[in-house]
């Protein structure tokens, strides 16, 4: 009976809502706004980091199938 009681206590603690502290997010504008060129470089870097490895894998998919 004690094992059943422990399992109910475990389930009760997992279903209890947890209190999460609020993040310190401010709604102030940026101290140094980004120019259009800086934004373009950032977007290009993000797309490159994501698309180049996946493109490499897709281009060499037949090689990976042979292994």
UniProtKB/TrEMBL annotation:
Membrane topology designation: Single-pass membrane protein
Entry keyword Transmembrane helix: yes
Pfam families found in the cross-reference section: COX8
Protein location: Mitochondrion inner membrane
Gene Ontology BP terms: mitochondrial electron transport, cytochrome c to oxygen
Transmembrane annotation, as ranges: 40-59
Location (main, coarse): mitochondrion
Keywords: Membrane, Mitochondrion, Mitochondrion inner membrane, Transit peptide, Transmembrane, Transmembrane helix
Keyword match Transmembrane helix: yes
Superkingdom of the organism of origin: Eukaryota
Pathway(s): Energy metabolism; oxidative phosphorylation
One Gene Ontology cellular component annotation held by this UniProt entry: mitochondrial inner membrane
Family recorded in the similarity comment: Belongs to the cytochrome c oxidase VIII family.
Protein name per the record: Uncharacterized protein
Provenance organism: Anguilla anguilla
